[in-house]
Amino acid sequence: MGFFTYTMFSSSNSILTHTFEITRTHLYPSQKNSILQNPTPTNFGFHKLHFRPLLVATKVEETEKIEIVEEERPRFRWVEIGPEITDPQKQAISQLPPKMTKRCKALMKQIICFSPEKTSLPLLLAAWVKIMKPRRNDWLSVLKELRRLNHPMLFEVAELALLEESFEANVRDYTKIIHGYAKQNRLQDAEDILLAMKRRGFACDQVTLTALIHMYSKAGNLKLAEDTFEEMKLLGVALDKRSYGSMIMAYVRAGMLDQGENLLQEMEVQEIYAGREVYKALLRAYSMIGDSEGAQRVFDAIQFAGIIPDVKLCGLLINAYVVAGHSHKACVAFENLRRVGFEPSDKCVALILAAYEKESKLNKALDFLIDLERDGIVVGEEASDVLVAWFRRLGVVEEVELVLKEYASKQVNCQEPSL
After folding, report:
1. Contact, 145 vs 137, CB < 8 A?
2. Global confidence as pTM
3. Which of 38, 139, 219, 299 is the most buried (most CB within 10 A)?
4. How far apart are CA 9 and CA 73, in angstroms?
5. What is the rounded CA–CA span in Å between residue 162 and residue 196?
C-alpha cells in the first residue's frame, strides 16, 4: 500500500489539505498504437530516452479532506461607555467641547477610557472609521482635543491617522508630528516620520526642513543642522526668518557666535530680520562671556531691525560691559536706558554696583545711589545684597547700618506735615 499526500497553500487565509489513498497497483501492458509498446529511440542530441510500462492503479479510493482554517482576526466591539468609569474619566468626558460632533465625541470617550489590556488603538481607530465614516475635519478635531488635553496617545493617534484615506494626509501633517517629536527631543521618532513621509511620495519643503534644523539644534547636533540648512539652499527652498533663526540658534548653542552673527548680516542684505528671541539669545551669549564689542554689535542690529530694546536687552548690554571690566561704558548704557524713559530694574542697579566694586570705586557707588534716591528709584533686594557683601568685605557693615538708620529717620521727619 502506498500513500501520497499533497498540501496546497493558497494566498488566502485558508489552508486546503488533500489526501489521496492508493490501495493496489499493477503493471498493465500498453495499447498497440502506443509509443510505449515498441519504443523507438529518439535522439535529442544528448542521450536516448526509453520509457517503462505505465504504473496505474486498479482501484483508487480518493478521499478529499478539506479543512478550512480561518485566521482569527481580533475584532473591536464598539460598546458605549457606561457609568462604571472612573471619576477622572467622567470629568474628562464632561469637558469635551459642546460643539464637537457626535462621531468625534464617541471616539474621544473611547480614547479617554482606553485600556490596552482589552484592545489595541489600531483596532479602535479602524472600527471608528468603519462605523462612523469620519472626514478630515473629524480627525483634526480629535487631534486638536488630544493636544489640548496633552494626552499621551496624541502622537500614536496622529501616526495612525496618516495611514487612513479619510484623513487625506498632506506634507504639513507630517511636519507637525516631526515638530512635536522635536519638542520632546525624540529624534529617532521624528526621523522615522520623515522617512515614512519620503516613502509615501511627499517632498520636504521649507517648513519641514526648518523643523529639522530646530530639532537638531536643540539636540546639540550642529553637523546635522548644518547639513539640513545646506540642503535647503541646494533645493532652492526659500529661506525665511524662521529658517535663518533656527540655524542661528544652532550656532549660539554650539558657542559659534561669529557664525551666527554672519547669518544675521546675510539676512540684513536680503532685508530679512530675525525674531526678538534670536537677537536676545545671541546678545546674551556675548554678554555672558564679556564680549562687549560683540554685544554692542548685536544691540545695534536689534535697533536696525526695528526692534525697540527693553530693560532686559539693555541689562544684557550692561552686563557685557561689567564682565569686560568697563564700568564707565556700563554706566553710559545705564544712563541711556533711563534717558529713553525706562525705569532701571534692580538687576541693572546691582550690575552697576558690582562694576564699581570691581574697581573699588566706593565714592562713585555712593554718588550713584544718591542719584537714584533723588529720582525716586528704590534699591531692591539684589542690589542691597551686593552692597552688604561689599561693605562686609570692607568691615564697615555696622557703620553703614547706623548711617542708613539715621538717614531713614531724617526721611520720616521730612515727610511729617508741619503744624
Report:
1. no
2. 0.69
3. 139
4. 19
5. 10
